[in-house]
């Protein structure tokens, strides 16, 4: 039983003097209104109304309950007003889970969002582990891979591109590869994720092309691979998210742009709830806008139109 809602029905029955009037107000049947009053009587163990064919009046117990109910409903309405004002604006904490490749990118941009919203707080939970969003108290999450949890709502999915990069100092010393096969003659930095970490795949006019690369430095962390590329050790294949700011600042150069490497699916998800708080929606739209910035930059570089 919705106790607050049923108490509101009680007050309106007293104010209007009939079940039928309240039924019309709430688009209910008269029997449904009578049933709510009966539920109140069962809940409190008292009789609330004297009923005759022509008149409805409160019992003594009904008078007591009515007197206690009005201040309770006034308090509830005060809470609804206060929280309604809060929920209509983007204030409060939003917890966002992101993989390590996205954390650095968002850290550079979130201050712009927060500067104009003093009541908003964003906590980045940076991890490549996929946990339970409800247990982890998460409002939003960027998930890599296919989404199999049917309880999650997918706001949008896209492919996170990977690109070949190197520092200008490396290119100055060793030259620029023109086709994927040229990588066999360069020092490459490997993201070590298994036995085929040294096999890079590219799309070519003739179809997919696999190249076995060589290099003395391996790491299981994208950040370490990026840092090795930044100091000019060799050529790396990295997610665009990881190197976007380095490309914009000139610390790294994008290579083999005509031969894209396969990307991986990324989705922005949130728990299945009826209401999405305005603060969560604001952060969600901000994250999506940043992802669109990356995709637009890639499309300009490759000459393709950005998808809607």
Give a brief description.
By secondary structure, the chain is of the alpha/beta class. The protein has helices at residues 3-16, 19-26, 30-44, 60-87, 100-107, 110-115, 168-174, 222-230, 240-249, 278-302; strands at residues 49-51, 56-58, 92-98, 120-126, 140-144, 152-166, 187-191, 199-204, 207-212, 214-219, 235-239, 253-255, 261-271. Strands 3, 4, 5, 6, 7, 10, 11, 12 and 13 form a 9-stranded mixed sheet that branches. A two-stranded antiparallel ribbon has the order 1-2.
Textual characterization of the structure:
The chain has 308 residues and is of the alpha/beta class. The chain is built from 10 helices and 13 strands. The protein has helices at residues 3-16, 19-26, 30-44, 60-87, 100-107, 110-115, 168-174, 222-230, 240-249, 278-302; strands at residues 49-51, 56-58, 92-98, 120-126, 140-144, 152-166, 187-191, 199-204, 207-212, 214-219, 235-239, 253-255, 261-271. The strands form 3 sheets. Strands 3, 4, 5, 6, 7, 10, 11, 12 and 13 form a 9-stranded mixed beta sheet that branches. Helix 1 (3-16) packs across helix 4 (60-87), helix 2 crosses helix 3 and helix 5 runs parallel beside helix 9 (240-249). It is rod-shaped, with a radius of gyration of 31 Å. The relative contact order is 0.13.
Taken as a percent bin, the fraction of beta residues is 25-35%
The H-and-E topology, N to C, reads as: HHHEEHEHHEEEHEEEEHEHEEH
Query: What does the main sheet amount to?
Result: 9 strands, mixed
Write down the Rg. Answer: 31 Å
Mean pLDDT: 85
Instruction: Please state the structural category.
Output: alpha/beta
Give helix % range: 40-55%
Dominant shape: rod-shaped
Ranges where pLDDT stays below 50 over 5 or more residues in a row are 302-308
Distance between the termini: 46 Å
Per DSSP, the total helix count is 10
How many strand units? 13
